[in-house]
Amino acid sequence: MTDSGQRNTAHEAHDDRRAALHEQRLRQIVDQATDAFIVIDAAGCIADVNAHGCQSLGYEREQLLGQPYARLDPLQTPARLAELAAELAAGPQTFETRHHCGDGSELPVEVRLGALDTGDGPCLLAICRDISERRALEAQLRFQSTHDSLTGLPNRNLLEDRLNRAVAHARRRSRLVGVLCLDLIRFKQLVDTLGHTATDELLRQIARRLIGIVRPGDTVSRQAGDTFIIVLDELVAEERASQIAGRLREAVATPLTVAGQEIYPDASIGIAVFPRDGSDCDTLLRHAAAAMQRARRHPRNEPQFYAAAMNTWATERLGLEGKLRRALDGRELMLHYQPQIELSTGRIVGAEALLRWKHPELGMVSPAEFIPLAEETGLILPIGDWVLHTACAQAQAWRAAGLPELRMCVNLSALQFAQPDLATRVAAVLAETGLPATALELVITESVLMRDVEAAAAMIGTLNDMGVQLALDDFGTGYSSLAYLKRFRIHRLKIDRSFVRDITTDPDDAAITLAVIALAHSLRKSVIAEGVETEEQRHFLSERGCDEVQGFYFSRPLPAADLTELLAGRRALANGLAGAETEEPPTVLLVDDDPVFTSFGCSVLRNEACRVLCANSGREALDLLARNRVDVIVSDLVMPEMDGADFLRRTRALYPQACRIMLSGSTSLQSLIDSINEGGIHKFLEKPVTPERLRTTVREALARRTPPAG
Ligand code: C2E
Ligand code: CA
What we know:
Low-confidence stretches: none
Number of helices: 27
Helix content: 40-55%
Mean pLDDT: 87
Radius of gyration: 35 Å
CATH topology of the largest domain: TIM Barrel
CATH architecture of the largest domain: Alpha-Beta Barrel
Bound molecules: ligand C2E, calcium ion
CATH class of the largest domain: Alpha Beta
Largest sheet: 8 strands, mixed, barrel
């Protein structure tokens, strides 16, 4: 070897050692870093990780090497990583995510992703910073901004949020919300004699007592000083608010010792109830405070409702319990039956038994009023037994008389459904009355199922095995039980009246209804809509494949004798069905508040192979749409009440198959753009329209129509 050769080798050895040292040093730096360094190869697998990374994730290095990075963060699939890598050209990418640690916990991290070229192909370097402290701090700040620091109760901000939500929810479900304003008596005197430290402790203790009284969904919040606001979510009846107010006051009034002093606190409570006393947060709070002032002036400091008339009413209602007890013994309870109609045939296929109370002095008392009370007092159990027996006996009597067979539907309350021996009771009633189990359907609500999913599934299974059918009432009004639905052997879903009411005008209600029908059918369950009051609603439901309907449009709930007449064919339903729908010709709907245009349109389209309907307002048009299958809608943009953009927006959601054409004289570009974007219009016609223009536009639209289903 030459001299220079030897020198070279020595050089190389030196270089290698330096490189090794260099790498070792780098490794040490990286290992001492307090961030996790993870090298991810092109296949999305972990090629390297530093000491801190192993330690913070709770893995040995060997456990991580070669593993897919998605094991730490399932969101970052190889495909996603490839996308991120492509975006790196524009600079490092930063995002927040959670890493799955070895002990099963999750670690919030901020990841800064950069490109790395290590010689064996492009890699990604993820530098991950533990942000759990930052997250905890954020959570703490969030808590502080929404809670009262003294008692830990929600503050005004959170209260308003909760109250708004409760009101929105109650509006949808036709329920009540109670707002109670509770104010301590002589609090200022207490502060003066005991000092702030002691009264702070008093407030904390009182807060704890208040929380102990209300249900988990209710809200207790502290406002300034010694005022507490309590929101009672989903009240079933107003007098329940006064009962809870009574209990809150009792809880406050229990003597306690603070700073060595025995204290006898007391509170005045005012009650406002949504919707009667207000429909927004401010009004309800104001009215509850006003009622509290009245309570303060009351000789015995009794809780007061905002509407003075409620006070006497609530006390009277308390007497109702005794009356209801007697009603059960006397002959004051009876059942009415509401027919259920199959849409495809127009036949009465079922009847729902609905309880009636004919009180000698009060007259007819609605079940909506006394069932909550019967549930609270447990009276619903003997009443429920009576209902089941009477309804089954009646159904069997109809069968024995040779009348068309029908299904008898009986509502069960939560308390009844929770009886462990329910199946035995049902079996006994069926045996006594002779009614086959298959002719009975028990109706329960979603909320009843969700109380104890396991027990409910078992009970439904037992009833099913006997042959009894189950229906789910109020479907769609709450509880995300969709996931559970498959687990319950339910035969039928009932779409709640609150959705049916606005089904032809409110896209949200229509969408929910469609979703329920689709869901039910995909699970091979039948759907019945209740509260059908108009032809528009019937047509809408029928078009969308709903199986059965029930409602005033066909018949109110009837005494047994009247339903006998109907079943025997001696009387007809108020609105029988004309059987299957007849095929309708292609239809165009013209909507304009200006009758000159609608009559112009009619004459222009007279000789076209289509039917023309006219409406002079959005509302009228929605009614026509509900009753008729429409293929093309031509609507003016500027109309009073509901403008064309709003109208077309609704039709887009309600009748997506119809072609929508917007008509306008005012060519405000912005309003046009808005309506195109929101209303999803297909075409725009500028006023004045020539006959030729209207004719060709409508022809083109009709040519594109989707033929009716079936
Ligand atoms: P629900 O189960 O939703 O019963 C349907 C209610 O809607 C009945 O009110 C019925 O008269 C009414 N209805 C039917 N068609 C229409 C319509 O087209 N428009 C309108 N606006 N209402 C319609 P009802 O009879 O006052 O019963 C109220 C609630 O009382 C029932 O609601 C049910 O939850 C309960 N209920 C009635 N009978 C019994 C019973 O025997 N046992 C139990 N546990 N609950 C019962
Ligand atoms: Ca029902």
